[in-house]
Amino acid sequence: MSVTGPPGFVASAAAGGIKAGGELDLALVATEDARAVPAAAVFTSNQVQAAPVQVSRAHLARSGGHAAAVLLTSGNANAATGDDGRRAAAALCAGVAEGVGCRPDEVLLCQTGLIGIPFPTEVALGGLTPLCAELDPGAGGAARAARAIMTTDTEPKVALVRRHGFSVGGMAKGAAMLAPDMATMLAALTTDAHAEPAALHTALRQAVADTFNTMSVDECTSTNDTVVVLASGRAGPVAAGVLTEALREACGILAEAMVADAEGATKVARIRVQGARDDHDAHRAARRVAASLLVKCSLNGADPYWGRVVSELGASGAVIDPDRISVSYGAVEVCRYGVGVAHDEAAVAAHMRGDRVRITCDLGIGAGQGEVLTTDLGYGYIDENRGTS
Amino acid sequence: MSVTGPPGFVASAAAGGIKAGGELDLALVATEDARAVPAAAVFTSNQVQAAPVQVSRAHLARSGGHAAAVLLTSGNANAATGDDGRRAAAALCAGVAEGVGCRPDEVLLCQTGLIGIPFPTEVALGGLTPLCAELDPGAGGAARAARAIMTTDTEPKVALVRRHGFSVGGMAKGAAMLAPDMATMLAALTTDAHAEPAALHTALRQAVADTFNTMSVDECTSTNDTVVVLASGRAGPVAAGVLTEALREACGILAEAMVADAEGATKVARIRVQGARDDHDAHRAARRVAASLLVKCSLNGADPYWGRVVSELGASGAVIDPDRISVSYGAVEVCRYGVGVAHDEAAVAAHMRGDRVRITCDLGIGAGQGEVLTTDLGYGYIDENRGTS
């Protein structure tokens, strides 16, 4: 059900001609009655912000944090496209507003695809009529919408989290340029909980920080990253902490699905750092290990080369004492207090051959802890990214 | 001639049994008369510092910036080896001191290889006798020494810079873990210029900042990076600027050779950022582009995807205005003021197919400029690094 799981939402998809092959490339999520409801978004930290990011920011500011619809397009990022790109984004929002019956500034826009290619506005506008006509409160529209936002993703990514009295649904895309601070990833979430725009924004930011912002595939931060949430309010108010927790769970499901489907990845690794001076240091150190090309190549080869892990901890900028670092692969400690220790090599080898690897680093200094999800680096990533055609 | 080019130095190499296959793995550079001369070094910024780094730092402090010999070993980094590693490093220095006839704290030590493996001290000590016996002021010893420090390097890296009245010689190794702030790289330089230790250190730091610290292969910073220089003084004093310039040229030759020989690389790219707010911002932006996995994959595929370059500039943290960025491949501008421009696609394609690529980014804001050398990312890097055996 994903985005139409929570009552009050409809979804649809269409082939708008942005992708050359005629695949689905337009997705729409809207409120059932086209009424604007509280909405919030978290955008890329990249200073080069695509036209849809600029337009969505402006719309949320103008509407005071409300939206009736989210249009998502794939195949062209509409980034580095200048004034023409901004005009295209405005035209898409106006087209959706006309189709569903709301104001243009009540439409948010998310786009993903190649950067720097002029956006085919006229072609895409033609796809909005069937898109708006087919809005569906059932599972079918949501499933097609989740497919329409895919680029190099191999499968759609959806989530539905049910809580006592309300639920959170979501869909996302993302397969490369995945890094903390998000990256070429789009996610649209819905909930029937009632929340004021400011509270919704706070809850979303917290959920994103704990999930999407702890992924590291290639440390690239795109021009288009956006996570949006719309709250229909049909279930009435929900305690802030409870809503945040449900959003976090939905985002966590989507983030794990993204990392598992990362371009060319053969395994997912969870890098945990504990015993750090504080949580900030722990995250910093975990991120450095997770981003290391040498560590990621070792993962690809199932090689438990802990020396590289220790080296990256030392280069991370986190406070460390080389003689207090311990490292484990799975449940097996391979380095204690900075030097190698005898261990069950067969158990480590078996763990490394699996598609879920856990590396735990204990800095032995304090109580700070943090985790980052990463992938291995193999031929597949290069194959996906060495050409645009 | 490399390190024995400047008068006053001798060099040799031996197979010390550290590398399993019996290859050369010990190299020695010493003053001809075993007299300690002014010496300086720049070490890794990694907080996990290998035993040889700790020992060399201590020796330079104790001798007041003087050394008579530099021992370089390959095959085992003697890093993350604890007290045993420090004892091994001290024993190697003592062995060289006895062999050449100087004090142990007048010996500097550089080691490279795998991290976290106990160092085979007894075996290596046995190799010091032939090593010290074969010290040679000619080209033969220097050539063998340059080979002995290689790990995954495919060829030795040497430099000899002649100036009016003095010269600078050098040798280096390094093929991965190459990043600004150096990384798994060792370089030993010699000069017959006279310079006090403090002035020599200043000159070396400046030369390293402009050369080794502008390389980016994988942004990994190792536990062992060291650049050392010994100044025999036979040529008498030289103006500080002139010495710095000669050191910079020698380091530049070695740095270019390292990047060109980087693990699995098929091409070298020079990323230039100009028009930045200041030089610091320019370097920061160039480094981000140079380190980008997506840009490096594009280089591997000879794909001039400037959208990725612009995205990385935006994510670099440097001050930018998206609408003022221009990007050129070779001499051909492909993006002007943030959007694509019609250009000679055949000329760009030809440039991208070559083994030397230039990407120039003009931020259009100020006068700051900087360059970083990088490589493409292809199968070769993964093949080299997915296993340690």
What layout of secondary structure does this protein have?
The structure is a homodimer of 389-residue chains.
Chain A: E1 9-14, E2 26-31, E3 37-43, H1 51-63, E4 66-67, E5 69-76, H2 82-100, E6 107-114, H3 121-126, H4 128-133, H5 139-148, E7 157-163, E8 166-173, E9 186-194, H6 197-210, E10 215-216, E11 226-237, H7 240-260, E12 268-276, H8 279-291, H9 293-300, H10 306-315, E13 326-329, E14 332-336, E15 339-340, H11 345-353, E16 356-362, E17 368-375, H12 379-385
Parallel strand pairs in A: 5-6, 9-11, 10-17, 12-16
Antiparallel strand pairs in A: 1-2, 2-5, 3-4, 3-11, 7-8, 8-9, 12-17, 13-14, 13-16, 14-15
Folded structure, characterized:
The structure is a homodimer of 389-residue chains. With 389 residues, chain A is α+β, with helices and mostly antiparallel strands. Chain A has twelve helices and 17 strands. Chain A has a seven-stranded mixed sheet. In chain A, strands 4-3-11-9-8-7 form a six-stranded mixed sheet, with helices on both faces. In chain A, helix 1 (51-63) packs across helix 2 (82-100), helix 6 (197-210) crosses helix 7 (240-260) and helix 8 packs across helix 10. Chain A starts with 8 loop residues before the first strand and ends with a helix. The model of chain A is unreliable at 178-183 (pLDDT under 50). Chains A and B meet through helix 9, helix 10, strand 15 and helix 12 of A and helix 9, helix 10, strand 15 and helix 12 of B.
Number of helices of chain A: 12
Largest interface: A-B, 62 and 62 residues
How many β-strand runs of chain A? 17
Largest sheet of chain A: 7 strands, mixed
Global shape of chain A: globular
Distance between the termini of chain A: 33 Å
Mean pLDDT of chain A: 91
* Element-level helix/strand string of chain A: EEEHEEHEHHHEEEHEEHEHHHEEEHEEH
